[in-house]
Inverse folding.
């Protein structure tokens, strides 16, 4: 079974702090994603990565950056946390193959971040 | 861009059948996914449709009509453990990204 592990389940940070959310997957997946999930808004894509050192903006990248130095690890960085970044953050990974388009996303359990 | 709509909440009775609808508008379509998410847990993959028709997987079935921009998830013989949110997600032809609807929270009552 694919395992996607997020380093923290709950985090509380202060406004202006730099925040790192870490995600590791153990199935050698090429694709990795960061979403945030808010009531009524569903999952919204922040950033994704197709390969090491590659990153692409999703729908809501403002206020975030990412790092993919190793294939198995994808980090989300909040440079200066703000209260509107209080949310559930979900990391996911998927395989790229000849039949890539039906490759489902495998999600981590999420990190609930509160910015005060 | 994409626009994906699904009902916010539904209630059904244990043992019954429920249909959760999803409509979408997209500039390019390359597959529709359904995920189940229990409260406080990660979404888990349920089904995938890329061609028109019905895909059956045990108690769960998913239907797609590309011309209508419409899909539904059918849950039969409902069990209490089926109480969860059900997420519809569409993949565009360009790229490997999924865009999610807001999710439908299903409550199964005895």
């Amino acid at each position: 079974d694919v395992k996607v592990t997020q380093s923290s389940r709950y985090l509380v940070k202060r406004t202006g702090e730099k925040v790192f959310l870490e995600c590791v997957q153990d199935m050698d997946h090429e694709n990795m994603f960061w979403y945030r999930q808010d009531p009524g808004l569903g999952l919204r894509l922040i950033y994704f990565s197709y390969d090491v050192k590659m990153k692409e903006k999703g729908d809501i990248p403002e206020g975030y950056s990412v790092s993919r130095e190793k294939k198995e690890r994808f980090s989300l960085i909040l440079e200066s946390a703000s209260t509107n970044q209080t949310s559930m953050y979900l990391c996911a990974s998927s395989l790229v193959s000849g039949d890539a388009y039906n490759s489902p996303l495998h999600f981590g359990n999420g990190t609930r971040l509160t910015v005060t | 861009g994409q626009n994906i709509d699904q009902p916010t909440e539904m209630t059904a009775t244990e043992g019954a059948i429920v249909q959760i609808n999803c409509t979408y508008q997209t500039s390019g379509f390359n597959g529709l996914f359904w995920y189940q998410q229990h409260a406080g847990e990660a979404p888990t993959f349920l089904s995938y449709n890329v061609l028109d028709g019905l895909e059956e997987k045990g108690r769960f079935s998913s239907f797609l009509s590309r011309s209508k921009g419409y899909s539904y998830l059918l849950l039969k013989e409902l069990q209490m453990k089926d109480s969860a949110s059900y997420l519809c997600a569409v993949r565009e032809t360009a790229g490997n990204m999924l865009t999610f609807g807001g999710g439908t929270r299903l409550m199964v009552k005895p």
Observations:
- Chain A is about 0% helix and 50% strand.
- The mean pLDDT of chain A is 91.
- The interface with chain B takes residues 4, 31, 33, 35, 40-45, 48, 50, 58-59, 90, 94, 96, 100-102, 104-110 of chain A (CB under 8 Å).
